[in-house]
Amino acid sequence: SIKESLASKVYIFQINNSKWYIESARGNPPCATRGSAFTTNGDKMIFNFGGYCGHGLCFYNDLHQLDSDTIIWSMENPKSSDSLAPMKKQDCGMVYYQNPTTGVAGLCVVGGAGIDSSSKKGWKYTNEVHFFDLNEGTWSKCGVKGNGPPPCSGFSFHAFKEDKAILFGGRSEKAILNDIYFLNLEEWSWHKIAKPLGSPWPNGRESHAFGYCDQFLTVVGGLNNDDVMMEDAWILNTDSMEWKEMALPSENSSRVNATAILHQTKSKDLQLILYGGSKYVRGTDQNQQPMLSHTFIAIFDTVIDGHKKIVPSVWYDLSPMGLQVKRLNDTVNQLKAQMNSDIMEPHGGSERYRDLLMKSPELDDVFPLMTKLSSSWHDIGGRLRVP
Predict the structure, then answer these.
(1) CB neighbours of 283 closer than 8 A, spacing ≥ 6?
(2) Which terminus of the chain is more solvent-facing, meaning fewer CB atoms within 10 Å of its CB: N or C?
(3) Beta-ladder partners of 206
(4) Interior/surface letters 215-248, b for 16+ CB within 10 angstroms, e for the rest
(5) 123 by DSSP, 3-state: which?
């Protein structure tokens, strides 16, 4: 079907060279839905659960997995009773967990919003917790203790350290949330974090971008209680539970339903990669929201004592045009450094070229510069993808 064909293309972003690749997937892919939950086992398997089809009350509770080595999709056929499975829903959370004592590996699915035949509107929020045993192929309902979140959806949910998951934000029946909860996956218990008085704390939101790495957690954008798009970004040090606000690079970095990845480079720096999502326009149908393809990356500095600064030192726009401008900036900076070398002294009109190098670069400046740099034509033109 058309919906399945959309998931038959897998887009891969190589962080080390900032390039996208497309792979054709085989097997049994999921239908193209929005609000589905994704997670990985930390190795090669990527899992997809649920989602909303885009019309009526067409929700899903199917579970698929993608082998990222072979690019083959497969669908799980649970051996357990349907009554033990999660409800058909969207905007839930899912994490992978393997119990270190028993060795049981599986997927924990939390919350969301989905079908409720007893409700007049036909759907409801939930805070149910389920576990899918990947070895046995069975669903089970988890009786979770402690002070957990209310029924809600649109929150962020991520594996945290060895045996926990962290949940932030979301929308409930009554309000937009900005609380933090930890779920202990070994003991199946919730723990709510108390907000310190007088300390910075992000406002409530749903459908925000969320990344976690090391002890740091990032939150970007989302919708507030009035369905207005948030134009802020925050980073949380989970060791000290201190939030700090980050500066955004441009209006394009503020978005709804985007994907965020926070990872550590070989040099021990942190990088935040922000991709996709939409510019939410209040009163516009979700199917008509302006979609974004810009990818931004934030590079975080590292302090001498090993503790990372909690502000990005630089943002890069990794869209095709953004990359061209960045590479052009890099090239011009290199040319400036060679300003007085022989190769940089064109025959006649030297001031014109010197002016080109000193101004803010534009793509139209590339050709006159390269006509005087024939030895670097292939290198510069190739990097800028200029014919």
Answers:
(1) none
(2) C
(3) 223
(4) ebbbbbbbbeeeeebbebbbbbbbeeeebeebeb
(5) strand
